[in-house]
Amino acid sequence: MENKHRFSYEWSLKDAIFTKDKGKVFSCFACGGGSTMGYKLAGFDVIGCNEIDPKMIEAYKTNHNPKFAFLEPIQTFKLRTDLPDELYNLDILDGSPPCSSFSMAGNREGDWGKEKVFREGQSEQVLDTLFFDFIDLAKKLQPKVVVAENVKGLMMGEAWKYMREIYKQFDDAGYYCQHWLLDASTMGVPQRRERVFFIALRKDLAGSFLEQVDMFNIQPKIVIEFKESEILFNKIIIDDSKCNISEKELILWNLKVPEDNDFGQINERLGNKITRFTTKIVHKNKVPLTITANCNNILYDYPRHLLKDELIKIGTFPKDYDFINNKTEYLIGMSVPPIMVAQIATEIFNQWISKINN
């Protein structure tokens, strides 16, 4: 028997009840508002955002009508002397620093320290230092809690050096920091998406939550663990067998076997160069794989790409979300699934903020 999910992956902005009684949140690297919607579903009041991409912030403003919206790099945003007082009285400062430098699908170490240009033509940035700019902002604003999301690759190989520096800088900023590797598929999200979440509590608020971890370390006690039942693709599939893939895609699609999860595996089996691994194969009886900004998703049973309504459900976006002129896969792939954040935010409130405020 399936266990009941705390939040429904099928929902709408129009019908959602946002109580706004759990505390105030500000979101950095906000994209189209994936994390923002999660905080809202958990009952928080998200008062604004910071984002560098003009197309993304336009979608954010259209769907969320924020009180404050700052379109600029975080490097200049953190230096502002005219920030509203409300930003100095936050319950949660949220952020998902761009993380392609640490992705297992990229060049990883080969790209560390290099400046990159985002696809929308913004100024060049060294992506692997944006996390530290975010911590600088936290040091300035001093919210009660800081939440930061990043890719699984940050925990692997030489990237651990960055992990140690993240912990050090949070400590210098006045926070106890912890991290968890979470899989969205255990959190009521129909997507197998693994992400690292850093949750930091301001030291002066941590007294009653501290526990001895070992003889050298103490940390604020909080349980971030989810065991909700998986949601398979057959729960959300739209029965539409119309073929809409290219002839080249169809050739590879006809050569697939049940064990294949992407076209790269097909090419490898054929002895070809391992390419097109970003074309994912979606199986009816499995949880869909991670939706990324630059991938294609083709059904195993029908020769077609995922439909927009299917992508929206997999990303746990509201069915009435206005994507403006943004490609659905790109915006959802760049965003944290709202239900994933709603789960974490609920636990932060229940275990920390509600007790701090009382």
Which architecture of the largest domain would the CATH scheme give at its second level? 3-Layer(aba) Sandwich
H-E string: EHEHEHEEEHEHEEEEHHEEHHH
Low-confidence parts, pLDDT < 50 over ≥5 residues?
103-114
Q: According to CATH, what is the class of the largest domain?
A: Alpha Beta
Based on secondary structure, the structural category is alpha/beta
**Biggest sheet statistics:** 7 strands, mixed
Mean pLDDT level: 91
Stated plainly, the CATH topology of the largest domain is called: Rossmann fold
Short description:
With 358 residues, the protein is α/β, with parallel strands linked by helices. It has helices spanning 34-41, 54-64, 74-77, 130-141, 160-173, 247-253, 263-269, 308-314, 328-334, 338-357; strands at 24-28, 45-51, 68-71, 92-95, 115-116, 125-126, 145-151, 175-183, 194-202, 210-212, 218-220, 279-282, 296-299. The chain has 2 domains: 24-230 and 333-357, Vaccinia Virus protein VP39 (Rossmann fold); 239-306, no CATH class.
Describe what you observe in this structure.
This protein has a 7-stranded mixed sheet, sandwiched between helices. It has a two-stranded antiparallel ribbon with strand order 5-6. Strand 2, helix 2 and strand 3 (68-71) form a beta-alpha-beta unit. It is of the alpha/beta class. Helix 1 (34-41) packs across helix 10 (338-357) and helix 4 runs parallel beside helix 5 (160-173). The chain has helices at residues 34-41, 54-64, 74-77, 130-141, 160-173, 247-253, 263-269, 308-314, 328-334, 338-357; strands spanning 24-28, 45-51, 68-71, 92-95, 115-116, 125-126, 145-151, 175-183, 194-202, 210-212, 218-220, 279-282, 296-299. It has 2 domains: 24-230 and 333-357, Rossmann fold, CATH 3.40.50; 239-306, no CATH class.
